[in-house]
Amino acid sequence: MQTFTLFFTLVFLAALALATTLQFWLARRHISHILTHKPQVPAAFSDKIGLEAHQKAADYTVAKTRLSFIHIALDTIVLLAFTLGGGIEWLTQAWQGVFDSSLLEGTALLLSTLILMSALEIPLSLYRAFGLEAKFGFNKLTPRLFVLDLAKQAALGLALGVPLVLGVLWLMGTMGEYWWLYVWLAWVSFNLLIIAVYPTFIAPLFNKFTPLEDITLKTRIEALLEKCGFHASGLFVMDGSKRSSHGNAYFSGFGKTKRIVFFDTLLKNLNGDEIEAVLAHELGHFKRRHIMKRMAWLFGASLVGLWVLAYLMQASWFYAGLGVTTQTPATALLLFMLVSPVFTFLLHPLSARLSRKHEFEADQYAAQTSSAPALIHALVKMYEDNAATLTPDPLHSAFYDSHPPAGIRIARLQTAS
Predict the structure, then answer these.
(1) Residue 265 pairs with which residues in a beta bridge?
(2) Of the residues 89, 187, 193, 280, which has the fewest C-beta atoms closer than 10 A?
(3) From CA 58, how far away is CA 53, in angstroms rounded?
(4) Where are the alpha helices (DSSP H) in 128-177?
(5) Active-site amino acid positions
(6) Where are the alpha helices (DSSP H) in 290-393?
(7) DSSP strand pairing (235-238 vs 259-263)
(8) pLDDT digit string, tens, across residues 149-204
(9) Burial of 353 (C-beta count, 10 Å sphere; 0-12/13-18/19+)
């Protein structure tokens, strides 16, 4: 058993080293590629985006990627500290005896670990908002709003997380051999509930949503919705400008709770044709059932993951190989949550490729139901306003990007127009 424990430790360290090294290497490639193409606007955009805007996007992307070096290193150090460094075992021992119930002790272990890990992210979040984003003119956050957001996120996390963790640990401890199936059903139900209540109960905690007042634009959008067979509970404008100058649009909820939301920054920067085309793209995701497909993928992957956890929970080498001697459902779940991303890291390109495929399909739908030229104009404006690089490293993009590179995306839309 000791030999297998050591073997698993070495496998974990090898997988972590591979994932960390690959992340650094991809980031360095990305920076090098962007800086190489910084002096000149790509030919496909030379008449649409100025050199100054192109170089700002390059500098912004390079700055974000350099910040990711710190994030990668911090994640690796924290993971090692909590596992082989004895952090989880120390917290487990610290909580023992505090409560009369092992269920409450397990819940305290999970939540305290997640709180500590979140707290370690705060300095980077502060720099990202008030350093990097402010430097490039995007940050609109105030220190007061930053603190309020943190407080609300913590309160919401506890309000939702405590019952969820209690329920999961109770199912793991009482439902016998097939506990993983009951936990999966509870997890799916929880996610569907959050999707249903998010638009009306959660999102308004952080942003103000007002009905779209532009009658002309509202009429155009309602006509598009009717044409696409999409029924929404309302059209809303979100005050995204109070945190950032980045723009976006989305729809959330399902059934009678579906609503369409525009960032106020998006409405400010796009004209009516362009807004309609962007919305048509978002509706393309709905009509092509992308959201349902992604949810099915997520729920399927979580079912497999819980099945694997059910096996690992019975294996002493799983705990010992990661620096934990106390074998409980809580420590098993926590270890699995922390280390599974290391072993699944190489699956990122598959997920990214599927997402890019969906984006192409949504673009095609928008070209058919609205206007390909209008969507092109909107995308170019959004690339410029958001300082999105036009020249990402192809390998970095293939590994991470959920959206196709700008040049490829625009070229496809031009053939559809």
Answers:
(1) none
(2) 193
(3) 9
(4) 134-135, 143-174
(5) 282, 363
(6) 290-312, 316-320, 329-344, 348-369, 372-385
(7) parallel
(8) 999 999 999 999 999 999 999 999 999 999 999 999 999 999 999 988 888 889 99
(9) middle
